[in-house]
Amino acid sequence: MTRSASGTLPETQVRAMFDRIARVYDLMNSVMTAGLHHRWRARAADLARVGAGARALDVATGTGDLAIELARRGADVTGLDFSEPMLELARRKAPGIEWVRGNALELPYEDGEFDAVTVGFGARNFADLAQGLAEMARVAKPGGRVVVLEITAPQKPPLSWFFRLWFDRVVPALGRLAGDPDAYTYLPSSVRRFPGPQALAAEMAAAGLEDVRWLLTAGGIIAVHGGTRQG
Residue 56: inside a domain, yes or no? Predict the structure, then answer.
C-alpha cells in the first residue's frame, strides 16, 4: 500500500485528471510560465550529463518535453507516463523517442539500465515520493544521474507574496477558463505539500543517491536537484 505523500489525491484520481487536461496541458504550461518551462527543462537536462550513446529515462514524462531535451543531447531516451492521452501527444511531437505507459512507482526495468533518470514537474504527483525516488535510483547505473525538476514555494517576501497570489488565485482562474478548475486547484495544493529543497535532497540521499545538490532559478520558484547513484 502506498502512503500519502506529495500529492493530494489518490493515484487513480491524479491519472484521471491528467487524462482530462492533456489537450490543454502544453498551452497551460506556456501561459503559466511565460514559456520559461522549456528553459528550466534544459537546465535539468544539463544536470543529467548525457550525450551520444547514453541511455536516459524520463519518468512522468507527460507530453514529453524533458525527454525531448535529453534526446537533443544525443541520448537514447525512453519517456514513461501513466496517462495514455499525454503519451499520445508526446508521440506526435517526437515519434523517434520510445514512449511507454507505466507506473513511476513500479518501473518496468532492471536495476542499473540507465545512465540518467529524470522527472520534470512530476515528482509531486507520486503517490509515494520515497518509493518513486527509490525506483529512479534503482534503474540508474552506478555513477548514473538522477535529476528532479520541480516547483518550490519561496519563503521570503516579496516573491512569496507573488507566489501565493499567482498559484492560489490566478492559476485556478486559468483552470476555470481551460474547463478544468479542479486540476488547477490541485496544482498549488500539491506544491504546498511537496518538500522544500533541503528536505527533497535528504529524500534523494535516503533513496541511495550521493552528492545531491540543487540549484534554484526563477527567483527561487523552480528547484533542480541532481544526485549520483551510489556505486
Answer: yes
**Residue 202 belongs to domain with CATH number:** 3.40.50.150
Q: Per-residue pLDDT for the chain (231 aa), expressed as one digit of tens each?
A: 333 344 457 788 889 988 998 998 898 889 888 889 999 999 999 999 999 999 999 999 999 999 999 999 999 999 999 999 999 999 999 999 999 999 999 999 999 999 999 999 999 999 999 999 999 999 999 999 999 999 998 777 777 777 777 777 777 777 777 677 777 777 777 888 899 999 999 999 999 999 999 999 988 889 999 999 987
For the chain, how many structural domains are there in total?
1
d(CA 231, CA 139): 13
- Domain of residue 42 covers 11-150+195-229
The answer to whether residue 157 sits within a structural domain is no
Question: Does residue 104 lie within any of the structural domains?
Answer: yes
H helix runs in 74-218, sequence order:
84-93, 129-139, 159-165, 171-178, 181-193, 197-206
Task: Name the nearest CA neighbour of 145 among 52, 218, 226.
Answer: 226
Q: Is 173 helix (H, G, I), strand (E, B) or coil?
A: helix
Q: What is the pTM of this model?
A: 0.90
Nearest CA among 34, 43, 11, 7 for reference residue 149: 43
Q: Does 26 map to a domain?
A: yes
Among 144, 155, 149, residue whose Cα is nearest residue 44: 149
Q: Take residue 93 and report the three cell numbers written for it.
A: 511531437
